[in-house]
Amino acid sequence: MMHQLLNPGHDEQEENHWLSVSDLMAGLMMVFLFISIALMLNAFSERDKIKQIAVAYQENQVAIFDALNTEFEKDLQKWDADIDEETLTFTFKSPDVLFKTGEIELSDEYESLLNEFFPRYMEVLKPFQDSINEVRIEGHTSSVWSRYSSDREAYFKNMELSQGRTRSVLDYVYSMPSSRPFRHWIKSHLAAVGLSSSRLIYDEKGREDRAQSRRVSFRVITNSDIQIKRILERA
Fold first, then answer.
1. What are the pLDDT digits (tens) for 172-182?
2. Which end of the chain is more exposed for a tag (fewer CB within 10 A), N or C?
3. What's the CA gap between 19 and 14, in Å, rounded?
């Protein structure tokens, strides 16, 4: 008591000291609060960017599929073809109409089919060219080659066959008079890809469907990575 009476300034200094520490702690808490809010807002912003990317990609995929389906819907049964919405793959499924067994030259029927199909295909894709990275002509085979072929020999023989067939298709569609306006784009965007038996088709019992496995497809691959970069830059 006597000490407090003799040193009244000491308690006041101590009280002021604790007040300043309290103010400092309150200030730090406010700083942490603002940081937390900023991080939350940034997280929401990143989430919205990802959502925007997904929506833009999906809308473009759907638009291309709808355009292809609208143009070719009445022809699919006649050509024994289908269009896969997820991969934007247009597949011709009758190998006997496309090529003779073991050969890479196009049949007369396939040339006639391509004369009807390819000009319309290019016109459908024309509005989407800026969003397309590549159109792949993909050749597929069954897993067999001959009765005496090993698995390895069959795979590489079929690889050679599927590559030769897709090159023949690309050469033919590039040379068509109707392709003249598109040739520059074809040279930079169409690719001939032989896949051998790497993507077989199986029946409901899990057995290889050799006939359906032999097919030629036109697959649109969009430049989604470039579109994603553009969206992020704008955001």
1. 999 999 999 99
2. N
3. 9
Q: What's at 199, amino acid-wise? A: R
Give CA–CA dist 13/105, Å, rounded.
99
Strand-pairing partners, residue 192, are: 137
Q: In CATH, what number does 51-233 get?
A: 3.30.1330.60
- Alpha-carbon span 118 to 120, nearest angstrom: 5
Give pLDDT tens digits for 63-86. Answer: 999 999 999 999 999 999 999 998
H-helix or E-strand spanning residue 118: helix 108-125
Residue ranges per domain, the chain? Answer: 51-233
Question: In whole angstroms, what is the distance from residue 158 CA to residue 196 CA?
Answer: 5
Mean predicted lDDT score pLDDT of the chain: 83
Query: Whole-model pTM above 0.85?
Result: no
Number of H helices, E strands in the chain: 9, 5
